[in-house]
């Protein structure tokens, strides 16, 4: 059997980027031979094994045929006769279809190195269309490597458009799509992900609500520049949409709870945050109560940061941020103990606490 390093590890080494995990490809072996050597199979019908010592993934060379619509519709054909070239040709991009043997010799039948040097994301063959998730993967790689000057090849964009127009993207599961979206949002140029999806017709299929929301791309870019969290980036992307649209996108991709929550809160409260300096103390208090800043200070902080990202490009600063932080600190500082000591409890205590907080916010405003 022959063992090769493949995919991202080869690509990122050639790019001089840190390699996180290594995928190995095994040519000329059977499932039985792998097991005899102590490799543990990952799943019942997927020819992938875990190395007994290193824990790294070893996949048997395989060809892939499509048997049905969407994910789960794959059949894998793995056998000792499948060659390195046959395995590599069914991969997504030429830059991901290079292999390296144990001596460090590069195998590059589809000219990935040339595309790497020319900064081009190009599909290897028509087999690209076998997995519609690759449309999102290409957009994600475009976002990741944008600082290096990469672009998507025209023919690849055309193929991505065909996939989008075929309706195949609708068959992707929320989990697979979200994983790509999440990874793309955390890249340094996440807006490129959305731009590429837009340019091939995939945005229309996946997030039609965003088709006319180009301001949010600037905000998202700012969020990435300021190393904001995933939830902040997601909320920046959805900012400006109506509440119903935000909820629809959240659910479509089953975004994690903290992402969903922040996006919804932005939809409901961002405009008032922008007006923070003019808000009456009672309105300010309503906001703080709604955000439950007493128990969830971090969520309010992420909300403020999302609003700040939306104001940044104008570079006027965002005094609302400090003002809102100060208001939250003021309301949180109100001590419940004297009220309890005076014998208050239950609803009456809640009302009294609210009244004290309102007083404190009035003083804060007039300071
Ligand atoms: N691959 C593919 N089509 C997919 C997923 C993966 O062709 N839908 C192939 C590519 O050759 C890829 C390799 O499998 O390089 C490993 O996939 P994965 O670990 O998901 O990605 P990496 O290329 O390692 O990239 P990343 O740095 O994003 O992990």
UniProtKB/TrEMBL annotation:
Keywords from the UniProt entry: ATP-binding, Hydrolase, Magnesium, Metal-binding, Nucleotide-binding, Nucleotidyltransferase, RNA repair, RNA-binding, Transferase, tRNA processing
Iron-sulfur found in the keyword field: no
Molecular function terms from GO: ATP binding; CCA tRNA nucleotidyltransferase activity; hydrolase activity; magnesium ion binding; tRNA binding
Binding site for Mg(2+): 21, 23
Cofactor(s) the protein needs: Mg(2+)
Described function: Catalyzes the addition and repair of the essential 3'-terminal CCA sequence in tRNAs without using a nucleic acid template. Adds these three nucleotides in the order of C, C, and A to the tRNA nucleotide-73, using CTP and ATP as substrates and producing inorganic pyrophosphate. tRNA 3'-terminal CCA addition is required both for tRNA processing and repair. Also involved in tRNA surveillance by mediating tandem CCA addition to generate a CCACCA at the 3' terminus of unstable tRNAs. While stable tRNAs receive only 3'-terminal CCA, unstable tRNAs are marked with CCACCA and rapidly degraded.
The keyword Transferase belongs to this UniProt entry's keyword annotation: yes
Highest taxon, organism lineage: Bacteria
UniProt EC number: 2.7.7.72
CDD domains: NT_ClassII-CCAase
Gene Ontology biological process terms, A to Z: RNA repair; tRNA 3'-terminal CCA addition
Residues given in the record as ATP binding sites: 8, 11, 91, 137, 140
Pfam families associated with the record: PolyA_pol, PolyA_pol_RNAbd
Protein name: CCA-adding enzyme
The reaction(s) this protein catalyses: a tRNA precursor + 2 CTP + ATP = a tRNA with a 3' CCA end + 3 diphosphate; a tRNA with a 3' CCA end + 2 CTP + ATP = a tRNA with a 3' CCACCA end + 3 diphosphate
Sequence similarity: Belongs to the tRNA nucleotidyltransferase/poly(A) polymerase family. Bacterial CCA-adding enzyme type 2 subfamily.
Domain Poly A polymerase head: 4-122
Residue ranges annotated for the tRNA nucleotidyltransferase/poly(A) polymerase RNA and SrmB- binding domain, each copy included: 149-210
Binding site for CTP: 8, 11, 91, 137, 140
Miscellaneous remark of the record: A single active site specifically recognizes both ATP and CTP and is responsible for their addition.
